[in-house]
Amino acid sequence: MREYFKTQPDEHGNFGQYGGSFLPPAIQAEMEKITDAYYSISKSHEFISELRSIRKHFQGRPTPVYFARRLSDEYGGRIYLKREDLNHTGAHKLNHCMGEALLAKYLGKKKLIAETGAGQHGVALATAAAYFGLECEIHMGEVDIQKEHPNVVRMEILGAKVVPVSRGLKTLKEAVDSAFEAYMVDPLSSIYCIGSVVGPHPFPMMVREFQRVVGIEAKEQFFEMTGEQPDNVVACVGGGSNAMGIFSAYIEDEDVQLYGVEPMGRGIKTGENAATITYGKPGMIHGFKCLLLQDDKGEPSPVYSIASGLDYPGVGPEHSMLHDIKRVHYTSVTDDEAVDSFYELSKKEGIIPALESAHAVAYACKLARENPRQSILVNLSGRGDKDIDFIYDKYGAR
Question: Nearest to residue 381, comparing CAs of 197, 227, 139?
Fold first, then answer.
């Protein structure tokens, strides 16, 4: 795994058999401009200095690593949390949104367009647009608008236009479709800021690179706290941006076990989960190739998760490759397990996690019970403010 980041992806944006860019010629031309700009602008001293200043003085980075003592006492092991919930806007999403918006500024773009599921990417991009004085348009499924209402309000207060999507299942996949169509209308003055390590090249690579700050910080912080590397690193996986952010620091360290946790939802029945790597097979979605939940005709299957940020039928092409080469262990957690961990982390540690992050916490607790002498570093990718109304209405205070 040496020199991993020099070879992944290749020059065409491929991670093994996955990735690439499969788009209409006019849009492909715009993607190539973005790729060229990223490779030239992002390596400049001016760009790097501005992004570092934003991260420190606006985002509040670095976020801390925290030892979850009471959770560890309950389950065994030593459970640590990388507190991305303390990043400005309450999740890891701002790490790549500020980078994408800064790139848009250097490209002379006037408008940011994106999809959102849980709303965290939408809030982060609306925040970035406000910071740089750009227009912002966020496409969101009607189911998620109702479920994640606090984040809808935040986006609108920040000045973004929220576009409801009423087609299909009215969730994340349909929001991506709608946002991409809006971008195709005017690719010259706008930029589509993809919200995860998915989509056509260069976005899986670009989002990963902006998210690597999570792993860089966590590795240094964990070593400072313990004098060693973690035995295990755990993160939830929908599209996979938070996971790639923290995995990136350890991917070349093969003694560190990496675990990506998918949403098993209500169970294994088709349409009742979004466990893409567990049940998917190679296919095409939104201009790139990845492991994909699909029907007999090769079309994306309906998916479901209680966590709106995880209910996507595809996954990042890099995750697809890491599964194939067995560098990352991909597993799953049900809705019920995630909700139990949502409450447990809240009551034992005073930290209300996002439902997405609760999937990672749930698996970390299982892992701790099985390996009581090992350390586990969890990427707590977001806070649960957005979920509390939904959870309280459905489950009460417990």
Answer: 197
Q: At what angle do helices 149-157 and 388-395 cross, to 10 degrees?
A: 160
Annotated catalytic residue, options 21, 305, 357, 381: 381
CATH topology of domain 62-90+213-395: Rossmann fold (3.40.50)
- pTM summary value: 0.95
Residue 110 annotated among the catalytic residues of the structure: no
Catalytic (active site) residue 366: no
Sign of CA pseudo-dihedral 237, 243, 244, 248:
negative
What is the SS3 assignment for 261? strand
**Cβ–Cβ < 8 Å for 320, 292:** no
Tens-digit pLDDT profile for residues 303-323: 999 999 999 999 999 999 999
Q: What is the residue extent of each domain of the chain?
A: 14-55+93-203, 62-90+213-395
Q: Count CB atoms within 10 A of the CB of residue 216.
A: 14
How many Å apart are CA 1 and CA 3, to the nearest integer?
A: 6
Catalytic one among 84, 115, 209, 217?
A: 115
What sign does the CA torsion over 381, 385, 390, 393 have? Answer: positive
**DSSP output for 179-234:** HHHHHHH-TTTEEE--SSS-SSTTHHHHHHHHHHHHHHHHHHHHHHHHSS--SEEE
What is the CATH architecture of 14-55+93-203? 3-Layer(aba) Sandwich (3.40)
Active site residue 289: no
82, 93, 111, 386: which is the annotated catalytic residue? 93
**pLDDT tens readout for residues 124-178:** 999 999 999 999 999 999 999 999 999 999 999 999 999 999 999 999 899 999 9
